[in-house]
């Protein structure tokens, strides 16, 4: 998105633990693309990568709600990693920092309170127990508190945080897993969540576009944007997690069975708890990390949707991709995987 839409871009540095072959394709154009294999938990590696950069978009993170990583590792990558990025900006004199936060900084909370089409100012009791949302909330707080700190050279650091809801689009691993699961079940998925539970979704291309726009405008309107948070939104429809997935997976040949959940909620919760117990018991032998656990069930079963125009008001954001484009692009990606099920 930066290469396509930011005419003033002179160099793009991509810093990641894992560098993919896709990066090579980006290295053939007129803008210098520098791939740096590194770890955000290593302060010296981050500082070396940030030195001389004008803007940092900090999107690296350990996204784990399935119990694959320990809570210490999640904290180290998401919180200490973010602290390292802030310190790198301060030490090297980089003045602009955009942080990819998450809706989970707000909720759903442990009490399962619905957040129905709320905005950045909607009161909500943000209480978390799970390591991933806790880490994102702490990291976001660090970023916002760093706004105004003096960087090397004496100028103030300008920061802001973007909070995507559930991102979908090309490369969405969970969508891919659910697609393969449906194929294994003879083209069927079984409804587990009531259709009335709304779950916020946003297309990856629009999330990227928001990052590019805010990075640009942070420099022009530091006083307005500095220290602010913005939900990421677009025209993707308000639906339950499963009904939304069917907008993509339906045209790819899957069918969602049942107008209402086939299993009662208490039974699903029992299975989720059983999965958590099995994960704990099997941990010394193998990693058991199914999609269903008490946290993912609570996420999918609690309404959390946003309705806001703050990004439009503050930095002129309009989605780059319509719902039809976003859907078609994702469908095309799923169809291209056909026949490659593991
Ligand atoms: N996927 C979603 O629905 C969603 C929603 C809201 C926010 N987010 C946030 O968006 C960001 C990107 O998430 P994603 O879904 O694309 O996940 P992802 O796992 O695809 O991307 C995260 C990237 O961070 C890199 N990374 C992980 N640990 C690292 C480390 N120690 N050092 C350097 N790089 C490291 C990974 O290699 C990966 O490329 C994350 O900060 C996440 O919290 C994601
Ligand atoms: C209960 C089962 C039938 C379905 C399980 C679905 C579950 C794996 C899904 C539901 C909601 C998903 C999360 C949601 O879209 C938002 C985010 C925020 C982001 O920061 C990281 C990803 C995450 C947690 C999604 C993970 C997968 C979830 C829990």
UniProtKB/TrEMBL annotation:
<comment type="pathway">
    <text>Lipid metabolism; steroid biosynthesis.</text>
</comment>
<dbReference type="GO" id="GO:0047016">
    <property type="term" value="F:cholest-5-ene-3-beta,7-alpha-diol 3-beta-dehydrogenase activity"/>
</dbReference>
<keyword id="KW-0755">Steroidogenesis</keyword>
<dbReference type="InterPro" id="IPR036291">
    <property type="entry name" value="NAD(P)-bd_dom_sf"/>
</dbReference>
<comment type="function">
    <text>The 3-beta-HSD enzymatic system plays a crucial role in the biosynthesis of all classes of hormonal steroids. HSD VII is active against four 7-alpha-hydroxylated sterols. Does not metabolize several different C(19/21) steroids as substrates. Involved in bile acid synthesis. Plays a key role in cell positioning and movement in lymphoid tissues by mediating degradation of 7-alpha,25-dihydroxycholesterol (7-alpha,25-OHC): 7-alpha,25-OHC acts as a ligand for the G protein-coupled receptor GPR183/EBI2, a chemotactic receptor for a number of lymphoid cells.</text>
</comment>
<keyword id="KW-0256">Endoplasmic reticulum</keyword>
<dbReference type="InterPro" id="IPR050425">
    <property type="entry name" value="NAD(P)_dehydrat-like"/>
</dbReference>
<feature type="domain" description="3-beta hydroxysteroid dehydrogenase/isomerase">
    <location>
        <begin position="2"/>
        <end position="256"/>
    </location>
</feature>
<comment type="similarity">
    <text>Belongs to the 3-beta-HSD family.</text>
</comment>
<dbReference type="GO" id="GO:0006694">
    <property type="term" value="P:steroid biosynthetic process"/>
</dbReference>
<protein>
    <recommendedName>
        <fullName>3 beta-hydroxysteroid dehydrogenase type 7</fullName>
        <ecNumber>1.1.1.181</ecNumber>
    </recommendedName>
</protein>
<dbReference type="Pfam" id="PF01073">
    <property type="entry name" value="3Beta_HSD"/>
</dbReference>
<dbReference type="GO" id="GO:0005789">
    <property type="term" value="C:endoplasmic reticulum membrane"/>
</dbReference>
<keyword id="KW-0812">Transmembrane</keyword>
<dbReference type="InterPro" id="IPR002225">
    <property type="entry name" value="3Beta_OHSteriod_DH/Estase"/>
</dbReference>
<keyword id="KW-0520">NAD</keyword>
<keyword id="KW-0472">Membrane</keyword>
<keyword id="KW-0560">Oxidoreductase</keyword>
<feature type="transmembrane region" description="Helical">
    <location>
        <begin position="263"/>
        <end position="282"/>
    </location>
</feature>
<keyword id="KW-1133">Transmembrane helix</keyword>
<keyword id="KW-0443">Lipid metabolism</keyword>
<comment type="pathway">
    <text>Steroid biosynthesis.</text>
</comment>
